[in-house]
């Protein structure tokens, strides 16, 4: 008899009832979410993620709670959109991953959602989750690494800067000769890399040939893959 995989917190959040609640939260403002906390405590306390917060002895204030819940709702919304065809589909499955790995992935996912500055980063993590555990585009190690990368991207300038590096790399890949590549590299060298310096998504210049945060940086293989498979699917 085949052992039925355990339903972890993320999978529990994908039942229709929980998805509907989180979908509503994702669409409303932070202020309205806080009011919802006050008015619908009986409803919200049954959400798996709220039970997790209680079990973790969270002492966050209402603003922090509401902000976390909105980010988590954005994450779940990205995971469930167009990807979940059955309410009981298990994305983290003990037939594929060990129980210890599933527990660690779930724990780290929640920790990073809490750390993220805004809902866009939670959406990026949601898409990364899908590309890893549904579409098998990333390994578990890459998923764990990219959770940190998302956290380290500058919240206002990072994504647009990574897009610029990605576009230059596409041009280099399509260049017909070395001369054209040299021109593109020269233009790319004018890009500042500070918004991405800690992300692990770019190759940083080496040596003392450049000044400040300009010159010589380029998107690396993981950064290119992350932009193409995750960011483009979230923001276009």
Commentary on this structure:
The protein is mainly alpha-helical and 236 residues long. The protein is 61% helix and 2% strand. The chain has a two-stranded antiparallel sheet with strand order 1-2. Helix 10 packs across helix 12. It is elongated and about 65 Å long. It starts with 8 loop residues before the first helix and ends with a helix.
List keywords for this structure.
elongated, about 240 residues, about 60% helix, two-stranded antiparallel ribbon, 12 helices, mainly alpha, disordered N terminus
Entry summary:
With 236 residues, the chain is mostly helical.
Percent of residues in β-strands: under 5%
Strand arrangement across the biggest beta sheet: 1-2
The largest β sheet comes out as: 2 strands, antiparallel
For the residues shown, what is the average pLDDT? 83
Described by the principal axes of the CA atoms, the overall outline is elongated
Counted beta strands: 2
Q: Which spans have pLDDT < 50 for at least 5 consecutive residues?
A: 1-5, 208-214
Query: Percent of residues in helical segments?
Result: 55-70%
- The succession of helices and strands, N to C, reads HHHHHHHHHHHEEH
């Amino acid at each position: 008899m085949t052992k039925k995989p355990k339903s972890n917190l993320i999978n529990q959040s994908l039942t229709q009832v929980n998805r509907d609640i989180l979908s509503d939260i994702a669409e409303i403002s932070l202020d309205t979410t806080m009011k919802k906390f006050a008015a619908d405590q009986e409803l919200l306390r049954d959400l798996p993620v709220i039970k997790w917060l209680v079990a973790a002895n969270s002492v966050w204030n209402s603003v922090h709670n509401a902000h976390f819940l909105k980010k988590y709702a954005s994450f779940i919304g990205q995971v469930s959109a167009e990807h979940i065809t059955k309410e009981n589909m298990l994305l983290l499955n003990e037939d594929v991953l060990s129980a210890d790995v599933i527990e660690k992935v779930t724990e780290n996912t929640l920790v990073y959602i809490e750390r993220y500055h805004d809902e866009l980063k939670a959406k990026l993590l949601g898409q990364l989750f899908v590309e890893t555990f549904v579409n098998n585009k990333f390994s578990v190690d890459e998923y764990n690494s990219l959770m940190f990368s998302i956290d380290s991207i500058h919240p206002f300038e990072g994504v647009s800067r990574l897009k610029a590096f990605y576009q230059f790399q596409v041009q280099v890949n399509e260049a017909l000769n070395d001369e054209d590549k040299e021109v593109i590299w020269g233009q790319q060298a004018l890009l500042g890399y500070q918004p991405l310096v800690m992300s692990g998504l770019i190759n940083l210049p080496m040596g003392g040939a450049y000044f400040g945060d300009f010159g010589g940086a380029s998107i690396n293989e993981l950064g290119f893959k992350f932009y193409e498979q995750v960011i483009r699917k979230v923001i276009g």
